[in-house]
Amino acid sequence: MSPESKKLFNIIILGVSFMFIFTAFQTCGNIAQTVITNLNNTDFHGSGYTSMSIIYGVFSASNLISPSVVAIVGPQLSMVVSGIFYSLYIAIFIQPATWAFYTASVFIGIAAAVLWTAQGNCLTVNSDENTIGRNSGVFWALLQSSLFFGNLYIYFAWQGKTHISESDRRTVFIALTVISLVGTVLFFLIRKQEDTKTPGEEDSTNEILGDSSSAQNKMTRAVAAFKKSIKLSFTKEIMLLSVTTAYTGLELTFFSGVYGTCIGAVNRFGSEEKSLIGLSGIFIGVGEILGGGIFGLLSKNNRFGRNPVVMLGIVVHFIAFYLIFFNMPNDAPIAAMEGTDDVAYMIPSKEVAIFCSFLLGLGDSCFNTQLLSILGFLYSEDSAPAFAIFKFVQSICAAVAYFYSNYFLLQWQLLIMVVVGFFGTITFFTVEWEAAAALVARGSDYSSI
């Protein structure tokens, strides 16, 4: 197998592994609050929103140390161990206990930071400036296929149900735990890249992937990775991209947790309200897969760079927010177990609700594929620290959003995303223009990015 084929193989395995793990985890996140609402008349008194807030809060803090962990353990083993913790979190729902639920939320927050830092490192190591756009798109399309498969099951399994029984819950979460474990095992198929540097030439990628067994060398690499994270945090490019990243954290919370809860709370959807959560997830996944696939395939021929894709993303999201504002009752995110009989500015429409799900997924893929691409391009030699900062900002904003989702009406959640999304788009444009100018100055073709 040629080196390029080997790299593409690694990207595909990476994407398929994440697809299995997040088929389980994203489906779990999408239905968690609905399942928990049906449990809260028992001894269990947890909150899906609070759990997600804990996960993303710990996730954000853990990104400060995750480059050091990946430097010591290596990206492959880091992803395997993290995958095990994802599986344990999902397994908690088989027989829920409040203390175990919140404890697992803390551990999965740590695991998520390590997993995504290792993923960013693996993506960058297996790419160059000519393939980073394609590989980002391929990975994103495979990852977001997870939304399709898990939610397709939920749609058919919960069709016509207004209450989720203990048997229904256990069946779903046993299956999701097994799926997550399959994805974890697949990480072992990723093949290590051979060192292609000349003797004496080093970069942070080699530091991360080094084979030295010396504990002192590993600690040196860990400290160096931590210092690079702090140093990169205060660069102009990272600070500007942090606004865009913050927006992806807010809208991630909305489409992965809040919007499904809104749909499930609308009593006017009748007996289909619970199965519609699954259908919503499917169409979010269709939007994600379509966006990731198209932008990955077109990246080699895109002479205009990343800005048009990001512009498409924000326009698509603003249309979705406008339609959701008109279609969904204002109290839907915080409705009680009985749901809500309120209406917004139109009679709630299932078709509009599902169309908005598709738009949310498509817009999200626009932002995330381009952020992965520009980070891999700008920080090819500092990939682990750069991706750790990306996930730090994204996760802390997701944690804040999950926290206020317990209290804010729908209109205020939408307004926050509109404002942050507008400014995030402008800051991304600024960084992209500077990257294009630097590329032209080097004599490279702008379309190669």
Structural shape:
globular
Strand content: under 5%
N-to-C span: 26 Å
Largest sheet: none
N-to-C series of helices and strands: HHHHHHHHHHHHHHH
Poorly predicted tracts of residues: 195-212, 445-449
User: What's the alpha carbon Rg, rounded to whole Å?
Assistant: 21 Å
Strand runs, count: 0
Report the structural category: mainly alpha
Number of helices: 15
Helix coverage percent:
over 70%
Rounded mean pLDDT is 80
Subcellular location: Membrane
Family: Belongs to the unc-93 family.
Membrane topology: Multi-pass membrane protein
Keywords: Glycoprotein, Membrane, Transmembrane, Transmembrane helix
Outline of this structure?
With 449 residues, the chain is mostly helical.
Describe, in plain words, how this protein is organized in 3D:
This protein is an all-alpha fold. It has 15 helices and no strands. It is globular. The model is unreliable at 195-212 and 445-449 (pLDDT under 50). One of its GO terms (cellular component) is membrane.
